[in-house]
Task: inverse folding
């Protein structure tokens, strides 16, 4: 079996005619930069997410950086982030001269522990970046209460959870990335909504912030050659928008397919000794960008290697927490500073999950896991 973490080729083959026609349209019109398909896609994504503005950019990391610049944060300001996340979340904070302040995560949901946020807030704290890790939302009700209490900006990193929905206590429902001041996402090919290159976007309900974000992404200009603010050059090219506009129509069915695969994993692995299946937050849907188990008793790497011998890929997202990365070492933080995240980094293992999962492939994966775990 040719087992992959993400089957992009199989997914493409199902929508080949749509994608090819959309790309060919861009080539025929030769509108490669800021062509009409960019507006079509952002308008359609805005409608899908029920958000006033979608501001496209070159990638998810740029989206985070532009969001911070848009909100006017200045060097020395502190920004709270989960310590168990991809480096980009903290990277852009540091690049702008801001100070990333780490918070530990929940061992069952993997997302930031909102009960620990208030203890790290100081007079310099200006923002929180919740990361909707692996495909489900952070406890946004609690987080937004804290942000309002301390007058903090909220920048949602929803690169792994586009399409997920969060239900608040009053019954209102919002999409991931639309609950804070700015939401950011990545269209990296392996994402749930991925293009065939690089791309990203911001979700913004405040029209004035959206105008500023668009200016920053376009060299600080709203009128050509009039550079009113300091900006950068970050844009989603038209061919990628053409691909994304096609795939957006299929996003909900992609989420359903991932959930079907996750349900099989849940059923087959819930009673396997040494494995803890991922918990689902009752307040949010899960789009399963990753299906991430915990393998206890120091057996994670043994299982990973044994699976590889059987032709089954498995990935560790992420092996080193941010506070132990050389680039982010700070006085007072070493091993033991964030015990839950350190434990997760030693136990998490993501299994293959994608829109084209076949029953026989998944059966082979789960039976292999059971066989290996019974031996080690």
Result:
């Amino acid at each position: 079996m040719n087992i992959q973490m993400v089957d992009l080729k199989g997914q493409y083959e199902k929508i080949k005619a749509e994608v090819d026609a959309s790309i060919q349209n861009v080539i025929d019109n030769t509108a490669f930069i800021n062509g009409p398909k960019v507006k079509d896609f952002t308008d359609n994504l805005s409608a899908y997410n029920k958000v006033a503005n979608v501001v496209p950019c070159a990638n998810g990391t740029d989206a985070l950086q532009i969001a911070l610049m848009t909100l006017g944060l200045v060097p020395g300001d502190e920004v709270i982030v989960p310590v168990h996340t991809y480096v980009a979340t903290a990277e852009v904070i540091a690049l702008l001269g801001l100070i990333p302040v780490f918070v530990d995560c929940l061992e069952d949901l993997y997302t930031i522990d909102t009960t620990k946020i208030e203890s790290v807030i100081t007079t310099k704290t200006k923002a929180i970046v919740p990361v909707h890790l692996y495909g489900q939302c952070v406890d946004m009700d609690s987080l937004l209460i804290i942000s309002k209490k301390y007058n903090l900006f909220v920048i949602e990193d929803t690169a792994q959870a586009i399409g997920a929905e969060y239900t608040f206590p009053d019954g209102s429902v919002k999409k991931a990335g639309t609950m804070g001041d700015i939401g950011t996402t990545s269209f990296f090919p392996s994402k749930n909504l991925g293009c065939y290159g690089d791309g990203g976007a911001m979700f913004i309900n405040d029209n004035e912030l959206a105008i500023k974000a668009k200016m920053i992404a376009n060299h600080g200009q709203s009128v050509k050659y009039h550079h009113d603010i300091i900006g950068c050059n970050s844009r989603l090219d038209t061919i990628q928008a053409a691909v994304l506009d096609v795939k957006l129509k299929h996003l909900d069915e992609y989420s359903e397919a991932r959930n079907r695969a996750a349900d099989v994993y849940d059923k087959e692995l819930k009673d396997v000794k040494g494995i803890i299946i991922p918990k689902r937050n009752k307040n949010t849907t899960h789009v399963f960008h990753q299906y991430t188990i915990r393998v206890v008793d120091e057996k994670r790497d043994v299982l990973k290697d044994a699976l590889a011998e059987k032709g089954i890929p498995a990935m560790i997202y992420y092996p080193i927490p941010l506070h132990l990365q050389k680039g982010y070492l700070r006085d007072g933080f070493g091993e033991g500073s964030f015990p839950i995240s350190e434990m997760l980094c030693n136990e998490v293992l993501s299994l293959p999950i994608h829109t084209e999962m076949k029953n026989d492939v998944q059966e082979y994966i789960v039976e292999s896991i059971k066989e290996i775990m019974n031996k080690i």
